[in-house]
Each structure stands twice: as structure tokens, then as C-alpha cells.
Amino acid sequence: MTIAFDNSYARLPGQFYTRLPPTPVRAPALIALNADLARELGIDPGYLRSDAGLAVLAGNAVPEGAEPLAQVYAGHQFGGWSPRLGDGRAILLGEVVGTDGRRRDIQLKGAGRTPYSRSGDGRAWLGPVLREYLVSEAMHAMGIPTTRALAAVTTGEDVHRETRYPGAVLTRVAASHIRVGTFQYFASRGDLVGLRALTDHAIARHYPGAEGALGLLKGVIAAQARLIAQWMGVGFIHGVMNTDNMGIAGETIDYGPCAFMDSYHPSTVYSSIDQFGRYAYDKQADIAVWNLAQLASALLPLIDADETRAIDRATKALHAFPDLFRDEWLAVFRAKIGLAGAEDDDPALIHRLLDCMAVTGADFTNTFRALARGTARDQFTAAAAFDQWENDWRARLTRDGQNAKARKALMNAANPAVIPRNHRMEEAIQAGLSGDFGTFDRLLNIATQPFVETMENSDFRNPPAQGEEVRQTFCGT
Ligand code: AMP
Ligand code: MG
């Protein structure tokens, strides 16, 4: 076997998925291959680059050992219940245990219709594939748990959206694709056998120390509190935090209309379909709780046979989220402003900086990065409020007592110098549409070394100039 598959999900009962192969495409061509990730998975990158490998990445051949399937799930989309969703444009090829001992899914996204496609065509176009590749690899490079991109190919076929676009397939790697919505699917149908099998599978795979369904719930709550805090720290807005887009393993999953903020404002929204700001930057922790409450509801029958007791236990677990999140958030932002120790007034100090940034719309990434350099003042059009803050911050740093060198190292490891900015991703997609992937390659290379300032990335550190700003992002469909 060229890929050493070991498919634990395919061993679950039949009601978890529909087995079917990807739909072949006309003329596949490789856009990008993540050779480091391939090696981590124990796959020879040379093989993936060969014609045989390309056929696998395009869905034209099913490799030995793969057991292709589409997973079923349900979910709340913008608060509205959908009893049956599922992989409508994705096929799970199977799982591999990497050289690091970690089990991971290999999935083709954009691999053709499935029984869960509803009115969709099962395909993806080039834009969302390049965006997901860039954002997920940048997130990984920033140390934020995420699904990864193993490869991207074009299909040689058109995909019809508002207009015709080149089709593409992303090979996505994830700890698993089990979502809050997967639990909701079995619970809503009253399939307790399925729910129990899924819970056992998720515990064994992601939370081996967890005791039962309540332990699983607690594990997911803690992982999400940490994940959302990390998003907040890099100005990331997921954009479509539906329960079917929240993974159980604590990875960022389903990059659709997501974006990194340029200019800071807490209520920033980019997604074109998020009319009421449900998934705005500063709503993400609340939405996570809402989603986790759906997970808790789904797990109730397994938490305790007595419903009242089950609700009581689940509620207690959910009530831990705000404190967990607050601690994670504080840890992230303390590091961002260079604090090693803790004082009670730190949250207020951090919020004062953020408020100051919001008033003048300071660039999120560049303001934090500039703090260590001592040039953050330049980021503010009206600097008086910042000057006041900076005095208080300096006094706080003195009390913190770290030496300047250690503090700078801490800050430069917590504050990325470069993020894949929207206008840059747009530029890479536009170039890709005319067959030039050099722009994408360059941006990928820069976005995956986020903590260094180099000559090469200096242009990429600039916020969009007037007229370059991207104010809206679109779903990956
Ligand atoms: P999303 O909001 O992108 O996570 O997708 C929500 C649901 O729509 C999932 O069940 C997807 O599988 C499905 N879906 C999205 N795009 C397509 C497509 N092009 N064809 C079929 N199903 C799709
Ligand atoms: Mg999704």
C-alpha cells in the first residue's frame, strides 16, 4: 500500500455513512502539494506528485486500502435546524496513523455528488480551495489547531456558480471530521445505539482519558474554549459557526467565508450571508457555548438515565465555559502585550488597548506586532488615548519584571507579523483564475512563516490600501 490506511470510521455501523467512490474528473492538474504534511502522514510526496498520486488526489482512482464514504450529520445553520446534512461535496478516503502516531482523516473536498448533496453539485471551485489551503496552513503555522491542506488540484472541468469557474479538489487532513452535528443527527432520530457507538468512537479517538459522555462533553468544552481564544488572538473570524462546522477534536474546521481582520472592530463580520452578525468576531465565544449546548442536549441520554440529573450535570459542564474561555483568552492576550505574570487588572488593561484600537480602527495584526518594537503609536490616527494606555502598560511591564529580551521574544511569538490578508488571498485567487499559481505559492510561503519579518514579506504585512479592501467574503460552495 502506498498509503497505509486504517479506517476506524468505516468500521462503525452502516447508518454513519454512505459508501461511494469520488466522481472522476476530466483533466486533473496539481496546484499544490504539502510535502511536509505528506511525510508526517507517512506518505511519499513523490508518489503524490506522480500520475498515480494525482489520480488519487483528483478522485479518479481509489488507492488500495481506502474505503471511500460520505459521512452523515445534521446541524443548526444560523440557528435553524437541518435534520440531515452530511458530506455533500466531500468523500472520506480513510484514515492513516502518521509517523507521529496521530490518526488522521484524509478527505477529498469537491469530489462529486453524494446522497447528502441536496441541490448542490458536489463540487468546489478554485477560489474556496485556494482560500482553505492558505488559511488552514497559516493557522497551523500560527500554532492554532486546524484541519490541514495536503494538496489542491484543478479538475479540468467547469463549476457553475454566479458564473463559470474552474473546478478544484482540496485534500483535507483532519484529526477527524466528527462534528457537533454528527451527535445531533443520531440524537434527533432517537438512535441511541448509534449515539453510543459515536460517543465511544469519539472518546477513544480524541479524549481517551474521558469518563463517559459527560467526560467527552467536558473535553470538547475545554478544547473549544482554548480554540476560540486562539482565534481571538489572531483576529480570526470563522464566519459560519454552524453546529455542523464545529469539530469535536477542537480543530478549526470548514473554512468558508472566514477572514482575518485588518482594521480592528469587535463586531466585524465579513461573511456575505451573515446579515445579522450572528458570527461576528466578538460573538464567537457565545456562539461556541450555544453550539456546545446543542452537543450537551444530544448527549443527555448517555449522561444519566435520569433526565433531570443529566440536565443538571450537562448544565454544570457548560457553565464552566465562560471561566475556561476567560483564562485562555487572558493567557493569549497577556502574551500579546508581553506579560509573563498576572495581575487582577490585566483584563481591563487589555480591553483598554482594544477599545483604543476600535475607536481609530487600528490594524489588529500590526498594532500588536508593533508593541514589542515600540512603534505601536504609529498605528493610531488619534494617539492621545494610546499614549495614556502606553504609560500604564509600561508601568505594568516594570512590575512584571521580565527582562526586555525575554519579553520581546514572548511578544514576537504571540503576535504574528503576517497573516493571509483578504486582499492578498483575493489577488492569489484572481491570478489562479488566469492560470498563474505563482502568486498563490508566494502568499502560501509567506503566510506559513508568520512570526518573522523579512524583506520578502514586507509588502504582505501592509494592510490593504484604499480601494484594495475586501469587505465581504463568500461561502465555499
Ligand atoms: P457548509 O455551510 O459549507 O459547511 O455546507 C453545509 C452543507 O451543504 C454541507 O452538508 C455540505 O456538504 C453541503 N454543501 C455545500 N456545498 C455543496 C456543494 N457544492 N454540493 C453539495 N453539497 C454541498
Ligand atoms: Mg460544513
How would you characterize this protein structure?
The structure is a single chain. The chain has 16 helices and 12 strands. It has helices at 35-40, 45-49, 51-58, 126-141, 180-188, 192-206, 212-233, 284-303, 307-319, 321-336, 346-360, 364-373, 384-400, 404-414, 422-433, 438-447, and strands at 17-19, 29-33, 69-71, 75-77, 80-82, 90-97, 103-109, 124-125, 148-160, 164-174, 236-237, 259-260. Among the domains are: 9-174, no CATH class; 330-414, no CATH class. With 477 residues, it is α+β, with helices and mostly antiparallel strands. Helix 4 (126-141) crosses helix 15, helix 6 crosses helix 7 (212-233) and helix 11 (346-360) runs antiparallel to helix 13 (384-400). Helix content is 43%, strand content 13%. The chain starts with 16 loop residues before the first strand and ends in a 30-residue tail after the last helix. It is globular and about 65 Å long. It binds adenosine monophosphate (AMP) and magnesium ion.
How would a textbook summarize the main sheet?
6 strands, antiparallel
Number of helices: 16
| Large-scale geometry | globular
Radius of gyration: 23 Å
Ligand identities = adenosine monophosphate, magnesium ion
Poorly predicted spans: none
Number of strands: 12
Order of helices and strands: EEHHHEEEEEEHEEHHHEEHHHHHHHHH
- Helicity, as a percent range: 40-55%
- In whole angstroms, the N-to-C terminal distance is 33 Å
Which structural class should the secondary elements be placed in?
alpha+beta
**Mean pLDDT, as a whole number?**
97
- Strand content bin: 5-15%
